[in-house]
């Protein structure tokens, strides 16, 4: 598999399959205009970097990407003034962060992207993930989300050259 292409409402796979998906509550935005907490999904071509999995809820998928089992000590820093902004952190963590072990199941399986990572520019957005979709298809905080079963299959099909392409 190579590229996953989305307009925020559907995700198109290389074989022509189309999956419903969710995007940020504020819609799509140019990556240069993305700001922390704006609820928008950045348009762009993003490498898929790392898979995180709640092994207590789903079997770890067979994937070509690095895989980490999520524990209650895993978080993601979203504090623009912190040196670990837009990076995985170990909880408890003193700065603002997301907890990866969520009760709602949305992060039972997630894939990190390289949005704002090299280097992470303070305030230009963090935690743009590909993750599990809310059962009612509710919007995300800026990520792209697909149904859990579809995400498992995607994670098993992607490779190190795969990209998430978000287009208007």
From TrEMBL:
The keyword Ubl conjugation does not apply. Keywords: Cell shape, Cell wall biogenesis/degradation, Peptidoglycan synthesis. The keyword Glycoprotein does not apply. InterPro entries: LD_TPept_cat_dom. The active site is at 131 (proton donor/acceptor), 143 (nucleophile). One of its GO terms (molecular function) is transferase activity. Coiled coil: none annotated. GO terms for biological process: cell wall organization; peptidoglycan biosynthetic process; regulation of cell shape. It comes from the Bacteria. Pathway: Cell wall biogenesis; peptidoglycan biosynthesis. Residues 1-167 form the L,D-TPase catalytic domain. This is L,D-transpeptidase family protein.
């Amino acid at each position: 598999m190579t590229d996953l292409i989305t307009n925020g409402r559907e995700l198109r796979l290389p074989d022509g399959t189309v999956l419903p998906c969710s995007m940020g509550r504020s819609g799509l935005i140019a990556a240069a205009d993305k700001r922390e907490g704006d609820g928008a999904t950045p348009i762009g071509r993003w490498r898929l970097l790392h898979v995180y999995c709640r092994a207590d809820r789903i079997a770890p998928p067979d994937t070509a990407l690095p895989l980490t089992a999520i524990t209650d000590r895993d978080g993601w820093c979203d504090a623009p003034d912190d040196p670990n902004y837009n990076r995985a952190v170990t909880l408890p963590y003193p700065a603002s962060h997301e907890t990866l072990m969520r009760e709602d199941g949305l992060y039972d399986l997630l894939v990190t992207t390289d949005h704002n990572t090299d280097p992470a520019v303070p305030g230009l957005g963090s935690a743009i993930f590909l993750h599990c979709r809310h059962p009612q298809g509710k919007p995300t905080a800026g990520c792209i989300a697909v149904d859990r079963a579809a995400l498992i299959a995607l994670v098993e099909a992607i490779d190190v050259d795969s990209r998430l392409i978000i287009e208007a």
